[in-house]
């Protein structure tokens, strides 16, 4: 078969570049800026009234959401090379569980 008959046979697939990379970087910078200037870490470490069941439960739920996000973005995306569009196929419960744990940690 001639390559003129099927011109896409010799072409390699082109991986799309992230379109919103700058937006993501700005969101991370804004989050760090907010945590730094709101004295969030200082209040967590030295204010005795926030220790308790609800704080621990919210911390566990928030950590669960962050671990799911880290698994999808870092492990699957960067190390295993999984495309962004295939997360829902590989991990169908990943996004709903991360959303539910984030909302639940915000309630507590």
Automatic annotation (TrEMBL):
Tell me the protein's name. Transmembrane protein 128
Which keywords annotate this record? Membrane, Transmembrane, Transmembrane helix
Highest taxon of source? Eukaryota
> Which sequence ranges are marked TM in the entry?
25-47, 53-78
| Record keyword Nucleotide-binding present | no
Could you confirm whether the keyword Electron transport appears in this record?
Answer: no
């Amino acid at each position: 078969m001639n390559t003129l008959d099927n011109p896409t046979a010799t072409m390699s697939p082109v991986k799309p570049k992230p379109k919103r990379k700058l937006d993501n970087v700005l969101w991370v910078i804004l989050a760090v800026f907010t945590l730094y200037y709101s004295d969030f870490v200082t209040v967590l470490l030295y204010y005795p009234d926030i220790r308790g069941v609800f704080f621990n439960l919210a911390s566990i739920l928030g950590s669960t959401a962050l671990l799911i996000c880290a698994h999808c973005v870092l492990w699957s995306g960067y190390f295993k090379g999984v495309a962004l569009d295939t997360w829902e196929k590989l991990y169908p419960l990943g996004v709903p569980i991360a959303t539910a744990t984030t909302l639940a940690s915000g309630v507590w």
